[in-house]
Amino acid sequence: MGSESIFERNNTIKAMVNFKDASSVLTDPSGSKAFIRVIKSDGTNLIGASSGATASRTATGTFEYYFNTSSTDPLGLYIILWKGMHNIGSVDGIDYGYKDILQRNCIRIVDTQQD
What 8-state DSSP symbol labels residue 61? Predict the structure, then answer.
């Protein structure tokens, strides 16, 4: 089981992703574009609809996106979905064309700390 990032609600959160090839080398998705969708713990979208919002490329294979949570957003686990496209090309004479590259992260939103 991986580690879980915890953030207080009513803050700005920086989400990051790395896309790697089969040799674990950082590589850009086709068009050097990545999209992000953030789903709240209640199942509603915080960022992006079905296609997602466009993330910023910071280096080869590395993308980031800043998003805000409000004091009324639900507490709990939020799912971050990353999507890029990659041209698979032809394998054994079959053209597979462009396919999705998908990655998922999970963060926990907790209540703002009180003094």
Answer: T
Phi, psi of 55 (to 5 degrees): -90, 160
Taking the C-alpha atoms of residue 18 and residue 45, their distance in angstroms, rounded to an integer, is: 22
Inter-residue contact 38 to 46 (CB < 8 Å): yes
pTM for the complete prediction?
0.82
pLDDT in tens, 76-111: 999 999 998 877 777 888 887 777 788 899 999 999
DSSP 18-36: E-B-TTS-B-PPGGG--EE
- Torsion over CA: 110, 111, 112, 114 (sign): negative
Residues 6+ apart with CB under 8 A from 72: none
